[in-house]
Design goal:
With about 260 residues, this protein is of the alpha/beta class. It has 2 domains: about 5-200, 2-enoyl-CoA Hydratase, Chain A, domain 1 (Alpha-Beta Complex), CATH 3.90.226; about 205-250, Lyase 2-enoyl-coa Hydratase, Chain  A, domain 2 (Orthogonal Bundle), CATH 1.10.12. It is about 50% helix and about 15% strand. The chain has helices spanning about 30-45, 70, 75-95, 110-120, 145-155, 155-165, 170-175, 190-200, 205-220, 220-235, 240-250; strands spanning about 5-10, 15-20, 50-55, 60-65, 100-105, 105-110, 120-125, 130, 170, 180-185. Helix 1 packs parallel to helix 3, helix 4 crosses helix 5 and helix 5 (about 145-155) packs antiparallel against helix 6. Bound molecules: coenzyme A. Coenzyme A binds near residues 69, 111 and 133. It comes from Stenotrophomonas nematodicola.
């Protein structure tokens, strides 16, 4: 039997989701997209999970793209369906009610960069390579890359990456704002674990409010976004965690957030 294309492991409140096709550099075929979608749907509703780390198995790749072998035989209708399946997954990740951190351990190309861009934070090893090389296949990005790259780092960089199709190294990706941080490959696990642990102990309802406000703000006019922020801000005063956070500050002790 083929190994599961996605592995799930929990360490306390941190869930790690690993794309597990290392012999194909973790390329995203239908089965993997569906397994990832199920993994994120499960993590979204599991009260024991406060943060999700997404990564790829093996030393070489986060995800080297959509599965080219599988795409080669698709009809236009199947191609559109494949795009919609990928977009649905990216949307689910982007709209997760808890933070999702991409651990970029190597190639993040095509669908791999699209997957990383749907996450809320991106930490890359200095050996990572990212890009949108679809043009070299006679294709365009299909899992949201043309839209998220544009919004993440602007028109010039989005056009450069998509038109030229040449991967860029981690340092350039940092410069362009595609990744949040670059660390030595040997330090990647420790840095990801530290950030995940920080997020796992933060106030979950406030984290969710931030994710919602920034997502909504990215899709609407400033006035509407500001109104949404005020409503979310007001809602926080209904939480025990807000009372705890402010009381702990005043008492000069660390807060303990209960997700209430
Ligand atoms: N889809 C399907 N299979 C893929 C893949 C993809 N996106 N990326 C890599 N693979 C497979 C290769 O076909 C190869 O399989 P095989 O051993 O059965 O022949 C295996 O993964 C290893 O890849 P290989 O190309 O031999 O590794 P490399 O170190 O020489 O090169 C890359 C690494 C990432 C530069 C190269 O694999 C590549 O260009 N991949 C495609 C990237 C891409 O265009 N992504 C966008 C897709 S829309």
């Amino acid at each position: 039997m083929a190994p599961a294309p996605v592995q799930i492991a929990d360490d306390g409140a941190v869930r790690t989701v690993t794309v597990n096709r290392p012999d194909k550099l973790n390329a995203l075929n239908r089965a993997t997209l569906e397994a990832l979608d199920a993994a994120f749907a499960g993590a979204a509703t599991d009260p024991g999970v406060r943060v999700v780390v997404l990564t790829g198995a093996g030393p070489k790749a986060f995800v080297a793209g959509a599965d080219i072998a599988e795409m080669n035989g698709l009809s236009p209708v199947q191609g559109r369906d494949f795009s919609l399946l990928g977009q649905q997954l990216m949307r689910r990740i982007e709209r997760m009610p808890k933070p999702v951190l991409a651990r970029i351990n190597g190639f993040a190309l095509g669908g791999g960069l699209e997957l990383a861009m749907a996450c809320h934070l991106r930490i890359a090893a200095d050996t990572a390579n990212v890009g949108q090389p679809e043009i070299n296949l006679g294709l365009i990005p299909g899992f949201g890359g043309s839209q998220r790259l544009l919004r993440l780092c602007g028109r010039a960089a989005a056009l450069e990456l998509c038109l030229l199709g040449s991967p860029i190294n981690a340092a350039r990706a940092l410069q362009l704002g595609i990744v949040n941080e670059v660390v030595g490959v040997e330090a990647l696990d420790a840095r990801v674990a530290a950030l995940a642990s920080q997020l796992a102990t933060a106030a979950p309802l406030a984290l969710r409010g931030i994710l919602d406000a920034i997502h909504v703000g990215g899709e609407c006019a400033l006035g509407e976004g500001l109104e949404y922020e005020s409503t979310q801000f007001g809602l926080m005063f209904a939480t025990e965690d807000m009372r705890e956070g402010t009381a702990a500050f005043l008492a000069r002790r660390p807060p303990v957030f209960q997700n209430r």
